Amino acid sequence: MTGSHGGRSAAGFVVDVSKKPLAVFFNDAGGGKDDAGKVGLGMLQAIGVPAACYSHMSARIGDAQDGLENGILTDMNDFARLAGMKEDLQVSEAIRCVKKSEHPD
User: 0.70 exceeded by the pTM?
Assistant: First the structure.
């Protein structure tokens, strides 16, 4: 969970670590030029990590706690969709999707 944009530099931190997270959530930062605020979704798709962006209008950019409490998903990669995420889902509910996909009891 991050309050940061989902751009190349932010996603690069995830790409560079040896132990991959179960999922990653970014602020969409309003998209930006050429969707730069969410280009990281594809980068994480390439390494098998579910990733999604939540709306900059639903939570403050740079504030992960606000994103966790108030974030509403705007976009995600295919691995996130396979876990059950979809547009307009709250981040807190998206996290439950990830937990269910990891432990489908």
Answer: yes
